Amino acid sequence: MDTCLSEESKPSLENLFLDFEHPNPNINHKACVDMALYWPDASIERLIVKLDTKNIEMRRKSVKALGFFGDAALLPLVKIFLTSKDLSVRISCLKVFVKIAAIEKYDPIPKCLEEVIEIALKDENPQTILALVSLLRQLYKQGLPILILLTRDTNILRAKAAITALGEIDDPSAANCLKSLLNDSAIDSLLKESILFSMENYSSRLNLFDRNKK
Q: Which domains are seen in the chain, by residue range?
């Protein structure tokens, strides 16, 4: 439920949305913070509607804004993702899930988000693939087993994106998977460069971590 505050201390929702649409990003940011603080339910509802706009800039702003609400926005967005037939809306939902996952550090993954992942895994649209892999990457160890499976996906883009994501996860399982792929002669040659890049990325960050510990 929306936070109960006196009318004097509570900014107008209409004014917040005017600030949200302002060209100044600092004003936008403040508006989003106040929406989440004072008008979470009403703001989420209105922002979700904006995901269906043809105005790309407004859609991007709405994706960013919804990320401020964290877990409170998860279920409403999952419902939209599962029912909408519009590709742009579904991709926008996935992008918000990435932001929410970064805040909430889910462990385990909520069942409703698992359902989203299962459906998105069957989608061959390039934008959906990239957004899904970003989500799995943000879920860290919770998404790691799925990313490892995707490195051998028949869809080259999905496999390549998963390989790149593994290079950004500091976990021995990610490194072992990359080594296994590099030594597999059956791996598509188009993926070899991505594997090498990810291994270098993983190693450089690991070395930096070791130096910082000293």
A: 143-214 (1.25.10.10)
